Amino acid sequence: MADKPILKMDGIIKTFPGVRALKGVSFEVRKGEIHALMGENGAGKSTLIKILTGVYQKNGGTIYFDDNEVDFKTPIEAQQGGISTIYQEVSLIPYLTVTENVLLGREPKAKWGNIDWKKAHEEAKETLKSMGIDIDVKKAVSDYNTAIQQMVSIARAVSMKAKLVIMDEPTSSLDDNEVEVLFRVMRQLQSEGIAIVFVSHRLDEIYQMCDRITVLRDGDFIGTWDIEELNQQKLIAQMIGKSETEVKALSGMKQVNDKSNEDVVIKLEGVRRGKKVQDISFTLHRGEVLGLAGLLGSGRSEVAKVIAGIDGKDEGKLEFNGGEINLSSPKQAIQKGIAICTENRKTEGIVPNMSVRENITLACLPQISKFGFVSRKKQNEIVDLYIKKMGIKTPSPEQKIKNLSGGNQQKVLLARWLALHPTLLILDEPTRGIDVGAKSEIHSLIDQLSKDGLSLLMISSEFDELIQNTDRIIVLRDGVRVGELNGDERTQDNIMSVIANEGDNDEIEGVL
Ligand SMILES: Nc1ncnc2c1ncn2[C@@H]1O[C@H](COP(=O)(O)OP(=O)(O)OP(=O)(O)O)[C@@H](O)[C@H]1O
Ligand SMILES: [Mg+2]
Fold it and tell me: Above pLDDT 90, what percent of the chain?
């Protein structure tokens, strides 16, 4: 029976010091359905998932899985019980091989009880192949990009014969092609009767994949709907607790500004760096928001890293405010007024055990210190300002940042760089994992900042985000600039056709 529940969570309560993360949440998932768990940053989605999967212990409520009451004490117990989780941040053991990660502890044994590696590799390879991924399984997972690592996590779930697979923002680090592969795999799991809980802040994905939607808001259960019952506007309204009319007013389009007459802030001429940056030239003007579009691996982040002094260039010229610069460190770049908010908040951004206050002011400390002493007053002013301005959800500035929800961590990072008052701010995937409400807040912030004269270079895998927020878009493919789109030319179709077009570069620009 297709609509028999495989999972029933009732009245789940979870409190952390100062936070009531779940206030009696109910959640029911049917066999073989793809069920979206929706809510703003900090609504309690990941907490609910972590309680189900034994990462956290609940303070109240009951859980039934596959007709039995369960209370998993550890993630391993949950896995053995038939629930596999693909976490928001990939959770593999990086130095182990793909095979070891897929099979982890269930490797086939040879005669003497040793692991039969030949068989193990074959099994891992087959599982991945069935998902359309053909890779060398003897390599360490750390040798592969996030997308592949994600697939390895899913392969592990498949090989463990899970009855319920939970995916907490699996697509946030995947490009379009990889998302397609993931969706195919999800459909395949579904056809085998496996239920999937899917968390994503990208509404198009929800509507493409899911059968039902459950909405949480501030730790409360708001409701569960069939997908047909809840259009996008209704969904957003439920998530943020506002009326549909108010939601409509939120979704305005940025007015495009031609900034070509303004001073040039940064100019790249024939910049090269390693294999990823082959030949990049462009200018960015004062108060302009310039987008870098391209597929994963097109060199967008690598270009950003050269400008931000993280990577040195091999060849070419970099000019900033009219003078040539040669940066050898991010520190130098920051001193000049170039800041970057990197895409990988977990490894390159946040300091998990530091407080929100410390994380926000980490970069601007020299500016608020005298004789090596930090002015606590100034620090608090800055922290309060940004917590308010960006709507960062935290019980106090002293909360460790690792305890904030993913989206709120991202806002803290952004605040850190804004607090430096840079001339040029590079945003690499600034709204990844950020909910619709916060996303539109960040978008209007970008708009405001550019009006105040800040120049922004924005990288996003979501083309509609680029179109909505930039004045001009440069398209990259394989480390080469292959096109530029101005004003009304900035459409999804045009970006795609510039990326897809293998022809002569000049010709492409001519066409558009
Ligand atoms: N270990 C923890 N200690 C303290 N507070 C926590 C902890 N984990 C989560 N929280 C708090 O619980 C609330 C719910 O967080 P949760 O991570 O479940 O949100 P989420 O819905 O997954 O958000 P996002 O979309 O940003 O991932 C937040 O206010 C968060 O700060
Ligand atoms: Mg989360």
Answer: 51
